[in-house]
Specification:
- By secondary structure, the protein is an all-beta fold.
- It has 1 helix and 12 strands.
- The strands form 3 sheets. Strands 1, 3, 6, 8, 9 and 11 form a 6-stranded mixed β-sheet that branches.
- A hairpin with a 2-residue loop joins strand 8 and strand 9.
């Protein structure tokens, strides 16, 4: 086992040398009270229970060069939970955004005859968080709440990086 697993890396950095990168939460590492809505983190799952400033969602990125990206978050948030401030950061760069637009759609209809255990799909809103410079090398990008205004920050499906 030691010889075949010596080069194993439990976290594989996402290569960002392209114009658009989607980073879903089922490929993220997260801490605190966050959890998947279904429980296992399958392909259509998302994170819920984002309730404290200790709850962090992060991805490891790898870049061959310095690149600027506009960062968007895919989320849902009922009107009653609006107002939380979150930050997205990489190294010493940090941008702050307030969730000001509610979006809380129902789950999408499914032709299932028997209810399934996996997470059903839903639509997601996008909020522009700002622009960050991804340095050359391997680094973490993280979402962290600065303040949790009400019950939760939002439900999160992931982030998107669009090359500027």
């Amino acid at each position: 086992f030691s010889s075949v697993s010596q080069n194993y890396k439990p976290v594989k950095p996402v290569n960002v040398n392209t114009t658009k990168i989607e980073l879903p939460v089922f490929e993220a590492q997260f801490t605190g009270k966050l959890r998947f809505v279904e429980g296992h983190g399958w392909a259509h799952d998302w994170l819920i229970n984002w309730q404290t400033t200790q709850d962090t969602i992060r991805w490891q990125l790898d870049s061959d060069t310095v690149r600027n990206f506009t960062v968007y978050m895919k989320y849902t948030c009922p009107e009653s939970d609006l107002g939380s401030v979150l930050s997205v950061s990489i190294l010493d760069q940090q941008i702050h955004s307030t969730i000001t637009k509610g979006f809380d759609p129902p789950l999408l209809p499914s032709p299932d005859r028997v209810l399934r255990k996996e997470a059903y799909e839903k639509e997601w809103a996008r909020i522009k968080l700002g622009t960050l410079q991804v340095p050359k090398g391997t680094h973490w990008i993280a979402l962290v709440p600065d303040t949790v205004k009400h019950k939760q920050v939002a439900e999160v499906a992931g982030i998107e990086l669009i090359y500027d």
